[in-house]
Amino acid sequence: MSEASRLPFSQLVLASGNAGKLAELQAMLGNEVEVIPQSRFVQEEVEETGLTFVENAILKARHAARASGLPALADDSGLAVDALGGAPGIYSARYAGGGGDQANNAKLLEALQDVSDDKRGARFISVLVLMLHAEDPTPIICEGAWHGRIMQEPRGSQGFGYDPLFWVPERYCASAELSYADKNRISHRAKAMADLRKRLGLS
Ligand SMILES: O=P(O)(O)OP(=O)(O)OP(=O)(O)OC[C@H]1O[C@@H](n2cnc3c(O)ncnc32)[C@H](O)[C@@H]1O
Ligand SMILES: [Mg+2]
Questions:
Q1: Residues 29-72: tens digit of each pLDDT
Q2: How far apart are CA 38 and CA 108, in angstroms?
Q3: Catalytic residue of the set 75, 76, 118, 136
Q4: For ligand 1, mutation pick of 14, 22, 41, 92 (most atoms within 8 Å of CB)
Q5: Shortest-distance ligand to the CA of residue 192
Q6: Inter-residue contact 156 to 163 (CB < 8 Å)
Q7: Catalytic: 76?
Q8: Which of 62, 131, 157, 190 is the least crowded, having the fewest Cβ atoms under 10 Å away?
Q9: Which residues, given as ranges, of the chain have pLDDT below 70?
Q10: Where are the domains of the chain?
């Protein structure tokens, strides 16, 4: 029996509009199930009104499941910086008011300009939520964290979001300097996905 046949579904909608995230999730799941980006079914994104990663991931998964009629997987993620009391956290994508990755990174560097290296600890968090349908009362919820430090200036060109500013102690480089495959082995999202795979009986 193949791995895929153990899953209760053969297609899965990825409830994200973030191209970087979509590529990572697709690479992690593509052998087991046909993954379809939500843009094939719906253009509008749901408002992320929750106060937790879990709430926002559920909102996104439900939205995509409703629009597609298929099981949906959402990721709500972000960067929690120790010296900023966990900010930007759930507001990571909107940190600089919708100005995009570069504006977010510039704002983060400015917020930390007087903070010394030993106090620049941070972690990426990813919460993955899988809902079998829009009214699924028992979503599967998995979480992963990735600890590192915020650098003084950007490095690297891989990845997305805050990757150029995130120092990865176990590789001694910025996250944006990691190969795509290596990031997908060690990141917050990879850890949450490992948990999800276990919960689905895939590994
Ligand atoms: O909501 P969706 O449509 O999935 O896409 P998004 O980009 O808005 O995603 P989030 O609301 O979950 O916001 C997460 C933000 O945190 C940052 N982030 C999350 N994971 C990251 C990673 O692996 N590398 C770099 N930055 C990351 C990045 O800025 C994201 O925009
Ligand atoms: Mg978002």
A1: 978 899 999 999 999 999 999 999 999 999 999 999 999 999 99
A2: 30
A3: 76
A4: 92
A5: 1
A6: yes
A7: yes
A8: 157
A9: 1-5
A10: 4-199
